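Hi R.,

Here's the chain you asked about this morning:
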Amino acid sequence: LTIVPVEGCPARVLIALGDVTRSQKYRDILEEAGYQVGWAGTVAEARDRLARAPWDLLLCDITLPDGDGFD
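And the predicted structure, written out as tokens:
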């Protein structure tokens, strides 16, 4: 996986994945490239994070513990 760093203002990426190990791997890669990264382990947590702050990108699993990720 190759991530191109963002010049100037870092983009904010919210990762919504139920798998903590995979989430941490994606977080490490994105942070190393200069992105600001947040994490949510459920649909409810993702909705809460999305309501509290603006995000530029949401990476969402389709098999979260409390929903399908399409909600």
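The chain has a mean pLDDT of 86.

Let me know if you need anything else.
M.
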